[in-house]
Amino acid sequence: MGKAINDIQGFKNPAQLAEAARAYITQLIPLTIENTGRFNIALSGGSTPRLLYERLAAPESKNVIDWSKVFFFWGDERMVPWEAPESNFNTAWRALISKIKIPRDNIVAPNVDLATATQCAEDYEDQIRRHFSVDMNKIPSFDLILLGMGPDGHTASLFPGRPELKETRRLVVGMDEPVGEPPLPRISFTLPLINGSRVALILISGAGKAEVIKKIWSDTDKAATHYPVAMVRPALKRLWYHDIQF
Ligand code: 6PG
To answer: Does position 237 have pLDDT exceeding 90, yes or no?
Structure first.
């Protein structure tokens, strides 16, 4: 991990995990806005972050955050209509974004109406490059990327053994064939984009993850040869928040 901080924090249950993540994010946003004028966050999909999103929409958070300077992106998305229950956008919209006062332009979501995941990925990459004003030779830096982990050690929609893990230039990749659970065509941030982030907050909750996370934490360098979540190496800080009772 070089000089970046790697920190593991365990919590008793999903509610305490969500509250700790809320507290961390709620202090990071104003600090970042003070330094740079805005806060760029990539949201995670799946079910784990839902409680966190709901906590961020609660009065004690939403009223202290200047949402006009917060920009939401998605680290991965399934190629389903945004109102579908499988949509990662839909999860964040229902739990958080629909409940806060935030300019429409601050929601930078993948265009899932495009014909294929490949087209959606190319379009999303263009949106990201435009937002950060970076050309093909630079990797933008998100202030925070939220990530989850599946029981196979996948993160975002980067799955073990798949070619997308080898991507070194593109920011976003599309998988036109169904992948993951639920098996769907998807787009995902690539490792270069994920690792361009300043901070990665990895939320791990749910059944069936204890074995793989024990293996990963026991030797992260070795794990990084197989498990995508172990390949997450952000510039400043990698935080693991979990509620796994070992
Ligand atoms: C996705 C997610 C994925 C998720 C993990 C954990 O779109 O599938 O981004 O990477 O974070 O699969 O999912 P749960 O939080 O539902 O366990």
So the answer is: yes
